[in-house]
Design goal:
alpha/beta, binds shikimate-3-phosphate, EPSP_synthase_CS, 4-stranded mixed β-sheet, UDP-n-acetylglucosamine1-carboxyvinyl-transferase, Chain, binds phosphoenolpyruvate
Protein backbone atom coordinates (compact mmCIF):
# COMPACT_ATOMS: atom_id res chain seq x y z
CA UNK A 1 0.00 0.00 0.00
CA UNK A 2 1.46 3.37 -0.97
CA UNK A 3 1.11 6.08 1.63
CA UNK A 4 -0.94 9.14 0.63
CA UNK A 5 1.08 12.34 0.27
CA UNK A 6 1.58 14.25 3.54
CA UNK A 7 -0.95 17.04 4.03
CA UNK A 8 -0.37 20.21 6.04
CA UNK A 9 -1.79 20.45 9.54
CA UNK A 10 -4.06 22.33 9.91
CA UNK A 11 -5.31 21.63 6.39
CA UNK A 12 -7.14 24.35 4.42
CA UNK A 13 -10.49 22.86 3.42
CA UNK A 14 -11.33 23.66 -0.21
CA UNK A 15 -14.27 25.98 -0.88
CA UNK A 16 -16.63 25.44 -3.83
CA UNK A 17 -16.59 28.48 -6.10
CA UNK A 18 -19.21 26.88 -8.38
CA UNK A 19 -21.73 24.03 -8.10
CA UNK A 20 -19.80 20.75 -7.86
CA UNK A 21 -20.62 18.09 -10.47
CA UNK A 22 -18.98 14.75 -9.70
CA UNK A 23 -19.32 10.99 -9.77
CA UNK A 24 -17.43 9.12 -7.05
CA UNK A 25 -16.54 5.51 -6.30
CA UNK A 26 -16.26 5.24 -2.53
CA UNK A 27 -14.22 2.74 -0.51
CA UNK A 28 -15.97 -0.20 1.17
CA UNK A 29 -18.03 -0.17 4.34
CA UNK A 30 -16.13 -0.37 7.63
CA UNK A 31 -19.01 -2.13 9.36
CA UNK A 32 -19.43 -4.73 6.63
CA UNK A 33 -15.68 -5.32 6.23
CA UNK A 34 -15.02 -5.83 9.93
CA UNK A 35 -18.00 -8.15 10.40
CA UNK A 36 -16.95 -10.15 7.33
CA UNK A 37 -13.42 -10.51 8.74
CA UNK A 38 -14.62 -11.69 12.16
CA UNK A 39 -17.05 -14.18 10.65
CA UNK A 40 -14.38 -15.43 8.23
CA UNK A 41 -11.99 -16.01 11.15
CA UNK A 42 -14.66 -18.08 12.92
CA UNK A 43 -15.80 -19.95 9.80
CA UNK A 44 -15.54 -23.61 8.85
CA UNK A 45 -13.54 -22.94 5.67
CA UNK A 46 -11.61 -20.10 3.99
CA UNK A 47 -13.44 -16.94 2.92
CA UNK A 48 -12.84 -13.99 0.63
CA UNK A 49 -13.80 -10.44 1.56
CA UNK A 50 -14.07 -8.70 -1.82
CA UNK A 51 -13.49 -4.95 -2.21
CA UNK A 52 -12.54 -4.80 1.46
CA UNK A 53 -12.08 -1.37 2.98
CA UNK A 54 -8.38 -0.70 3.51
CA UNK A 55 -8.26 1.73 6.42
CA UNK A 56 -6.98 1.95 9.97
CA UNK A 57 -10.03 0.23 11.53
CA UNK A 58 -10.04 -2.68 9.09
CA UNK A 59 -6.27 -3.21 9.15
CA UNK A 60 -6.43 -3.23 12.97
CA UNK A 61 -9.13 -5.90 12.70
CA UNK A 62 -7.00 -7.95 10.30
CA UNK A 63 -4.02 -7.64 12.66
CA UNK A 64 -6.11 -8.61 15.68
CA UNK A 65 -7.45 -11.75 14.02
CA UNK A 66 -3.95 -12.63 12.77
CA UNK A 67 -2.65 -12.28 16.33
CA UNK A 68 -5.31 -14.78 17.39
CA UNK A 69 -4.18 -17.31 14.76
CA UNK A 70 -6.17 -16.53 11.60
CA UNK A 71 -4.42 -15.62 8.32
CA UNK A 72 -5.63 -12.51 6.51
CA UNK A 73 -4.02 -11.64 3.17
CA UNK A 74 -4.55 -7.88 2.83
CA UNK A 75 -2.22 -7.46 -0.16
CA UNK A 76 -4.92 -6.85 -2.80
CA UNK A 77 -8.48 -5.52 -2.94
CA UNK A 78 -9.95 -8.95 -2.16
CA UNK A 79 -8.81 -10.25 1.21
CA UNK A 80 -8.46 -14.03 1.63
CA UNK A 81 -9.04 -15.24 5.19
CA UNK A 82 -7.98 -18.59 6.63
CA UNK A 83 -9.91 -19.29 9.84
CA UNK A 84 -8.45 -19.45 13.36
CA UNK A 85 -6.68 -22.71 14.13
CA UNK A 86 -7.62 -22.84 17.82
CA UNK A 87 -4.46 -21.52 19.48
CA UNK A 88 -2.93 -18.09 19.90
CA UNK A 89 0.51 -18.18 18.21
CA UNK A 90 3.09 -18.12 21.02
CA UNK A 91 0.30 -18.57 23.61
CA UNK A 92 0.07 -14.81 24.28
CA UNK A 93 -0.99 -12.02 21.92
CA UNK A 94 -1.57 -8.29 22.05
CA UNK A 95 -4.49 -6.64 20.26
CA UNK A 96 -4.35 -2.93 19.46
CA UNK A 97 -7.91 -1.62 19.21
CA UNK A 98 -6.77 1.82 18.09
CA UNK A 99 -9.98 3.86 18.22
CA UNK A 100 -12.08 1.15 16.54
CA UNK A 101 -15.22 0.26 18.47
CA UNK A 102 -15.67 -2.79 16.26
CA UNK A 103 -12.23 -4.18 17.21
CA UNK A 104 -12.64 -3.50 20.95
CA UNK A 105 -16.16 -5.01 21.09
CA UNK A 106 -16.10 -7.77 18.44
CA UNK A 107 -12.70 -9.41 19.11
CA UNK A 108 -12.88 -10.31 22.87
CA UNK A 109 -15.63 -12.95 22.35
CA UNK A 110 -13.45 -14.44 19.58
CA UNK A 111 -10.46 -14.47 21.94
CA UNK A 112 -12.47 -16.64 24.33
CA UNK A 113 -12.64 -19.28 21.59
CA UNK A 114 -8.88 -19.76 21.17
CA UNK A 115 -6.32 -21.14 23.57
CA UNK A 116 -4.06 -18.46 25.01
CA UNK A 117 -4.04 -15.05 26.66
CA UNK A 118 -4.91 -11.94 24.67
CA UNK A 119 -4.11 -8.47 26.02
CA UNK A 120 -6.32 -5.66 24.68
CA UNK A 121 -5.47 -1.96 24.66
CA UNK A 122 -5.90 1.01 22.31
CA UNK A 123 -5.56 4.75 21.80
CA UNK A 124 -5.77 6.90 24.95
CA UNK A 125 -9.40 7.89 24.22
CA UNK A 126 -10.34 4.25 23.63
CA UNK A 127 -9.84 3.62 27.35
CA UNK A 128 -12.88 5.84 27.98
CA UNK A 129 -15.24 4.22 25.44
CA UNK A 130 -17.77 1.80 26.97
CA UNK A 131 -17.14 -1.97 26.92
CA UNK A 132 -17.91 -3.09 30.52
CA UNK A 133 -21.27 -4.67 29.56
CA UNK A 134 -19.56 -6.94 27.01
CA UNK A 135 -16.90 -7.99 29.50
CA UNK A 136 -19.54 -8.67 32.16
CA UNK A 137 -21.52 -10.74 29.65
CA UNK A 138 -18.43 -12.72 28.62
CA UNK A 139 -17.71 -13.53 32.26
CA UNK A 140 -21.31 -14.68 32.70
CA UNK A 141 -20.98 -16.85 29.56
CA UNK A 142 -17.89 -18.58 30.97
CA UNK A 143 -14.94 -16.58 29.60
CA UNK A 144 -11.99 -16.00 31.96
CA UNK A 145 -11.02 -12.34 31.99
CA UNK A 146 -8.15 -12.94 34.39
CA UNK A 147 -8.48 -9.73 36.34
CA UNK A 148 -8.16 -11.18 39.80
CA UNK A 149 -6.10 -8.19 40.97
CA UNK A 150 -8.61 -5.50 40.11
CA UNK A 151 -12.01 -7.22 40.26
CA UNK A 152 -14.33 -7.09 37.25
CA UNK A 153 -12.79 -5.40 34.20
CA UNK A 154 -14.81 -2.41 32.99
CA UNK A 155 -12.64 -1.08 30.17
CA UNK A 156 -9.32 -1.16 28.38
CA UNK A 157 -6.75 -2.46 29.12
CA UNK A 158 -7.98 -5.99 29.86
CA UNK A 159 -6.95 -9.59 29.16
CA UNK A 160 -9.00 -12.48 27.84
CA UNK A 161 -7.68 -15.90 28.87
CA UNK A 162 -9.10 -18.09 26.16
CA UNK A 163 -9.44 -21.81 26.74
CA UNK A 164 -10.54 -22.80 23.25
CA UNK A 165 -14.24 -23.00 24.09
CA UNK A 166 -16.96 -20.84 25.63
CA UNK A 167 -19.92 -22.46 27.45
CA UNK A 168 -22.34 -19.69 26.32
CA UNK A 169 -26.02 -19.58 27.29
CA UNK A 170 -28.38 -16.85 28.41
CA UNK A 171 -27.22 -13.38 29.36
CA UNK A 172 -28.82 -10.01 30.18
CA UNK A 173 -27.04 -6.82 29.17
CA UNK A 174 -27.77 -3.10 28.99
CA UNK A 175 -26.87 -2.17 25.41
CA UNK A 176 -28.21 1.39 25.58
CA UNK A 177 -24.66 2.76 25.20
CA UNK A 178 -23.88 0.87 21.98
CA UNK A 179 -25.50 -1.60 19.60
CA UNK A 180 -22.03 -3.09 19.18
CA UNK A 181 -22.44 -4.88 22.55
CA UNK A 182 -25.19 -7.04 21.03
CA UNK A 183 -23.41 -7.49 17.69
CA UNK A 184 -20.24 -8.62 19.49
CA UNK A 185 -22.00 -11.46 21.29
CA UNK A 186 -24.05 -12.45 18.23
CA UNK A 187 -21.07 -12.64 15.87
CA UNK A 188 -19.23 -15.24 17.97
CA UNK A 189 -22.29 -16.77 19.66
CA UNK A 190 -22.82 -19.62 17.18
CA UNK A 191 -19.42 -20.96 18.17
CA UNK A 192 -20.25 -21.04 21.90
CA UNK A 193 -21.14 -24.55 23.18
CA UNK A 194 -24.75 -23.59 23.94
CA UNK A 195 -24.96 -20.68 21.50
CA UNK A 196 -26.09 -17.41 23.03
CA UNK A 197 -29.44 -15.95 24.12
CA UNK A 198 -29.16 -12.20 24.76
CA UNK A 199 -31.75 -10.02 26.43
CA UNK A 200 -31.42 -6.26 26.59
CA UNK A 201 -32.60 -4.50 29.75
CA UNK A 202 -32.26 -0.72 29.68
CA UNK A 203 -33.09 2.38 27.67
CA UNK A 204 -33.63 1.84 23.91
CA UNK A 205 -30.63 0.49 21.98
CA UNK A 206 -29.16 2.94 19.45
CA UNK A 207 -28.04 2.13 15.91
CA UNK A 208 -30.43 -0.81 15.43
CA UNK A 209 -29.64 -1.12 11.68
CA UNK A 210 -26.21 -2.32 12.74
CA UNK A 211 -27.75 -5.23 14.66
CA UNK A 212 -29.84 -6.00 11.56
CA UNK A 213 -26.58 -6.02 9.57
CA UNK A 214 -25.07 -8.53 12.02
CA UNK A 215 -28.12 -10.81 11.82
CA UNK A 216 -28.26 -10.67 8.01
CA UNK A 217 -24.58 -11.58 7.73
CA UNK A 218 -24.97 -14.48 10.16
CA UNK A 219 -27.96 -15.83 8.21
CA UNK A 220 -26.00 -15.51 4.95
CA UNK A 221 -23.52 -17.92 6.53
CA UNK A 222 -26.10 -20.47 7.60
CA UNK A 223 -26.43 -19.42 11.26
CA UNK A 224 -29.92 -19.61 12.81
CA UNK A 225 -30.80 -16.35 14.57
CA UNK A 226 -34.08 -15.86 16.44
CA UNK A 227 -34.98 -12.18 16.62
CA UNK A 228 -38.76 -12.61 16.81
CA UNK A 229 -39.09 -10.70 20.10
CA UNK A 230 -37.98 -7.12 20.72
CA UNK A 231 -34.82 -6.80 22.79
CA UNK A 232 -33.95 -10.49 22.56
CA UNK A 233 -31.68 -12.31 20.14
CA UNK A 234 -30.79 -16.02 20.19
CA UNK A 235 -28.14 -17.71 18.10
CA UNK A 236 -28.16 -21.49 17.87
CA UNK A 237 -24.81 -23.27 18.24
CA UNK A 238 -23.36 -24.47 14.97
CA UNK A 239 -20.84 -23.80 12.21
CA UNK A 240 -20.41 -20.46 10.47
CA UNK A 241 -20.00 -21.05 6.74
CA UNK A 242 -17.00 -19.51 5.01
CA UNK A 243 -18.21 -17.52 1.98
CA UNK A 244 -17.15 -14.95 -0.60
CA UNK A 245 -18.73 -11.58 0.08
CA UNK A 246 -18.45 -8.37 -1.87
CA UNK A 247 -18.41 -5.33 0.39
CA UNK A 248 -20.79 -2.45 -0.45
CA UNK A 249 -19.45 1.11 -0.57
CA UNK A 250 -19.52 2.84 2.84
CA UNK A 251 -22.78 4.77 2.80
CA UNK A 252 -22.04 6.65 6.03
CA UNK A 253 -18.83 7.88 4.45
CA UNK A 254 -20.95 9.03 1.51
CA UNK A 255 -22.32 11.77 3.77
CA UNK A 256 -19.71 14.48 3.05
CA UNK A 257 -19.84 13.77 -0.71
CA UNK A 258 -23.60 14.01 -0.95
CA UNK A 259 -23.47 17.04 1.35
CA UNK A 260 -21.12 18.66 -1.15
CA UNK A 261 -23.90 18.59 -3.74
CA UNK A 262 -26.27 20.04 -1.15
CA UNK A 263 -24.06 22.97 -0.09
CA UNK A 264 -22.78 23.87 -3.55
CA UNK A 265 -26.09 23.48 -5.39
CA UNK A 266 -24.40 20.89 -7.59
CA UNK A 267 -24.91 17.22 -8.28
CA UNK A 268 -22.96 14.23 -6.92
CA UNK A 269 -23.43 10.59 -7.92
CA UNK A 270 -22.21 7.86 -5.56
CA UNK A 271 -21.60 4.79 -7.69
CA UNK A 272 -22.95 1.34 -6.77
CA UNK A 273 -25.43 2.53 -4.12
CA UNK A 274 -27.10 -0.76 -3.16
CA UNK A 275 -30.77 -1.35 -4.03
CA UNK A 276 -31.29 -2.65 -0.53
CA UNK A 277 -28.92 -2.57 2.40
CA UNK A 278 -28.64 -2.77 6.16
CA UNK A 279 -26.21 0.17 6.26
CA UNK A 280 -27.31 3.12 8.41
CA UNK A 281 -26.00 5.52 5.77
CA UNK A 282 -28.94 4.66 3.51
CA UNK A 283 -30.95 7.07 5.71
CA UNK A 284 -29.10 9.93 3.95
CA UNK A 285 -31.57 9.59 1.07
CA UNK A 286 -34.45 10.64 3.30
CA UNK A 287 -32.53 13.19 5.38
CA UNK A 288 -31.18 15.06 2.34
CA UNK A 289 -34.56 15.04 0.60
CA UNK A 290 -36.10 16.57 3.73
CA UNK A 291 -33.49 19.35 3.64
CA UNK A 292 -34.49 20.25 0.08
CA UNK A 293 -32.24 18.11 -2.14
CA UNK A 294 -33.38 16.05 -5.10
CA UNK A 295 -32.47 12.41 -4.48
CA UNK A 296 -32.77 9.86 -7.27
CA UNK A 297 -31.47 6.48 -8.25
CA UNK A 298 -29.66 6.54 -11.57
CA UNK A 299 -28.01 3.76 -13.56
CA UNK A 300 -24.64 4.36 -11.95
CA UNK A 301 -25.84 4.68 -8.36
CA UNK A 302 -27.44 7.43 -6.28
CA UNK A 303 -27.58 11.06 -7.40
CA UNK A 304 -28.14 13.96 -5.02
CA UNK A 305 -28.73 17.42 -6.47
CA UNK A 306 -28.58 20.39 -4.14
CA UNK A 307 -31.12 23.20 -4.29
CA UNK A 308 -30.39 26.14 -6.60
CA UNK A 309 -28.56 28.66 -4.46
CA UNK A 310 -26.80 25.88 -2.53
CA UNK A 311 -26.73 25.86 1.26
CA UNK A 312 -28.67 29.13 1.57
CA UNK A 313 -31.67 27.27 0.17
CA UNK A 314 -31.35 24.22 2.45
CA UNK A 315 -34.11 23.91 5.02
CA UNK A 316 -33.42 22.97 8.63
CA UNK A 317 -34.21 19.49 9.90
CA UNK A 318 -36.23 18.01 12.77
CA UNK A 319 -34.78 14.53 13.08
CA UNK A 320 -34.41 11.74 15.61
CA UNK A 321 -31.04 10.22 14.68
CA UNK A 322 -31.11 7.46 17.34
CA UNK A 323 -30.85 4.73 14.68
CA UNK A 324 -28.24 6.51 12.58
CA UNK A 325 -26.11 8.43 15.08
CA UNK A 326 -22.94 8.06 13.02
CA UNK A 327 -24.50 10.45 10.48
CA UNK A 328 -24.93 13.19 13.10
CA UNK A 329 -21.65 15.11 12.54
CA UNK A 330 -22.21 15.53 8.79
CA UNK A 331 -25.90 16.30 9.25
CA UNK A 332 -25.12 18.87 11.96
CA UNK A 333 -22.68 20.61 9.62
CA UNK A 334 -25.38 20.83 6.94
CA UNK A 335 -27.83 22.17 9.52
CA UNK A 336 -25.34 24.89 10.49
CA UNK A 337 -25.36 26.01 6.84
CA UNK A 338 -29.14 25.81 6.36
CA UNK A 339 -31.57 28.71 6.26
CA UNK A 340 -33.86 27.65 9.15
CA UNK A 341 -33.38 26.06 12.58
CA UNK A 342 -32.78 22.35 13.17
CA UNK A 343 -33.31 20.00 16.10
CA UNK A 344 -31.34 16.75 16.16
CA UNK A 345 -32.48 14.38 18.91
CA UNK A 346 -32.01 10.80 20.19
CA UNK A 347 -28.22 10.84 20.09
CA UNK A 348 -27.00 10.87 23.70
CA UNK A 349 -24.98 7.75 22.83
CA UNK A 350 -22.70 9.60 20.40
CA UNK A 351 -21.04 11.17 23.43
CA UNK A 352 -19.37 7.72 23.69
CA UNK A 353 -18.15 7.60 20.08
CA UNK A 354 -14.64 8.59 18.92
CA UNK A 355 -15.09 11.74 21.00
CA UNK A 356 -18.07 13.31 22.80
CA UNK A 357 -19.57 14.30 19.45
CA UNK A 358 -22.32 16.53 20.86
CA UNK A 359 -19.82 18.60 22.85
CA UNK A 360 -17.32 18.65 19.97
CA UNK A 361 -19.90 19.72 17.37
CA UNK A 362 -21.30 22.45 19.64
CA UNK A 363 -17.80 23.79 20.28
CA UNK A 364 -16.37 23.60 16.78
CA UNK A 365 -19.43 24.69 14.78
CA UNK A 366 -19.98 27.38 17.43
CA UNK A 367 -16.42 28.66 17.07
CA UNK A 368 -17.12 29.28 13.34
CA UNK A 369 -20.17 31.36 14.29
CA UNK A 370 -23.00 28.78 14.23
CA UNK A 371 -25.77 29.08 16.81
CA UNK A 372 -25.53 25.64 18.43
CA UNK A 373 -27.15 24.65 21.70
CA UNK A 374 -26.12 21.36 23.25
CA UNK A 375 -28.75 19.18 24.97
CA UNK A 376 -28.21 15.92 26.88
CA UNK A 377 -29.40 13.95 23.84
CA UNK A 378 -28.98 16.26 20.87
CA UNK A 379 -28.39 19.67 19.34
CA UNK A 380 -30.42 22.73 18.37
CA UNK A 381 -28.78 24.58 15.48
CA UNK A 382 -29.91 28.04 14.35
CA UNK A 383 -28.82 29.83 11.16
CA UNK A 384 -26.06 32.39 11.67
CA UNK A 385 -23.35 33.81 9.41
CA UNK A 386 -20.30 31.54 9.52
CA UNK A 387 -16.63 32.52 9.29
CA UNK A 388 -13.35 30.72 8.74
CA UNK A 389 -11.12 29.43 11.54
CA UNK A 390 -9.58 26.27 12.93
CA UNK A 391 -11.91 23.25 13.16
CA UNK A 392 -10.61 20.71 15.68
CA UNK A 393 -11.31 17.01 15.02
CA UNK A 394 -10.53 15.31 18.38
CA UNK A 395 -9.09 12.34 16.43
CA UNK A 396 -12.63 11.76 15.07
CA UNK A 397 -12.94 11.03 11.35
CA UNK A 398 -16.54 12.22 11.28
CA UNK A 399 -15.64 15.55 12.92
CA UNK A 400 -13.26 16.04 9.98
CA UNK A 401 -16.16 15.30 7.62
CA UNK A 402 -18.25 17.95 9.40
CA UNK A 403 -15.41 20.46 9.05
CA UNK A 404 -14.91 19.93 5.32
CA UNK A 405 -18.63 20.31 4.67
CA UNK A 406 -18.59 23.75 6.32
CA UNK A 407 -15.35 24.55 4.52
CA UNK A 408 -16.97 23.77 1.17
CA UNK A 409 -19.30 26.73 1.77
CA UNK A 410 -17.20 29.04 3.98
CA UNK A 411 -13.71 30.23 2.97
CA UNK A 412 -10.87 29.94 5.47
CA UNK A 413 -11.84 26.78 7.39
CA UNK A 414 -8.70 24.93 8.53
CA UNK A 415 -9.08 21.30 9.58
CA UNK A 416 -6.79 20.22 12.41
CA UNK A 417 -5.56 16.62 11.90
CA UNK A 418 -7.51 15.82 8.73
CA UNK A 419 -5.35 12.66 8.65
CA UNK A 420 -7.64 11.19 11.30
CA UNK A 421 -10.01 10.34 8.43
CA UNK A 422 -7.73 7.34 7.73
CA UNK A 423 -9.80 5.51 10.39
CA UNK A 424 -12.29 4.62 7.66
CA UNK A 425 -11.13 6.26 4.41
CA UNK A 426 -7.74 6.04 2.66
CA UNK A 427 -6.42 9.49 1.57
CA UNK A 428 -9.65 11.32 2.26
CA UNK A 429 -8.00 14.75 1.88
CA UNK A 430 -6.65 13.93 -1.58
CA UNK A 431 -9.93 12.40 -2.71
CA UNK A 432 -11.92 15.41 -1.43
CA UNK A 433 -9.60 18.04 -2.95
CA UNK A 434 -9.81 16.40 -6.37
CA UNK A 435 -13.53 17.25 -6.52
CA UNK A 436 -12.98 21.05 -6.49
O1 LIG B 1 -21.58 -2.16 14.54
C1 LIG B 1 -21.09 -1.26 13.86
O2 LIG B 1 -20.41 -1.47 12.85
C2 LIG B 1 -21.37 0.14 14.26
C3 LIG B 1 -22.38 0.39 15.15
C4 LIG B 1 -22.71 1.76 15.60
O3 LIG B 1 -22.19 1.92 16.90
P1 LIG B 1 -23.07 2.43 18.16
O4 LIG B 1 -24.17 1.46 18.36
O5 LIG B 1 -22.07 2.45 19.25
O6 LIG B 1 -23.58 3.79 17.77
C5 LIG B 1 -22.12 2.82 14.67
O7 LIG B 1 -22.28 4.09 15.22
C6 LIG B 1 -20.66 2.52 14.40
O8 LIG B 1 -20.11 3.49 13.56
C7 LIG B 1 -20.52 1.19 13.70
C1 LIG C 1 -18.92 5.34 16.01
C2 LIG C 1 -18.08 5.05 15.02
O1 LIG C 1 -17.08 4.13 15.03
P1 LIG C 1 -16.71 2.87 15.93
O2 LIG C 1 -16.85 1.70 15.02
O3 LIG C 1 -15.32 3.11 16.38
O4 LIG C 1 -17.70 2.82 17.08
C3 LIG C 1 -18.17 5.78 13.72
O5 LIG C 1 -17.47 5.36 12.76
O6 LIG C 1 -18.92 6.78 13.61
Amino acid sequence: MTNPPAVPDPWPAPTAADPIEATVTLPGSKSLTNRALVLAALADRPSVVRRALRSRDTLLMAQALTALGAAVDTSGDDWAVTPLDGSVPGDRAAVDCGLAGTVMRFVPPVAGLVNGSVDFDGDPHMRTRPIGEVLGALTALGVDLGDEASGAAVGLPFTVRGTGSVPGGTVVIDASASSQFVSALLLAGARFDAGVDIRHDGKPIPSLPHIEMTIAMLRDRGVAVDDADANRWAVAPGPIRGIDQEIEPDLSNAAPFLALAAVSGGSVVVRDWPASTTQAGDALRDLLARMGCRVERVTEGLRVTGPAGGHRSLVGLEADLHDVGELAPAVAALCALASSPSHLTGIAHIRGHETDRLAALAKELGSLGAGVEEHPDGLTIRPAPLRGGIFHTYADHRMAHAGVIVGAAVPGVLIENVGTTSKTFPDFAGFWSALF
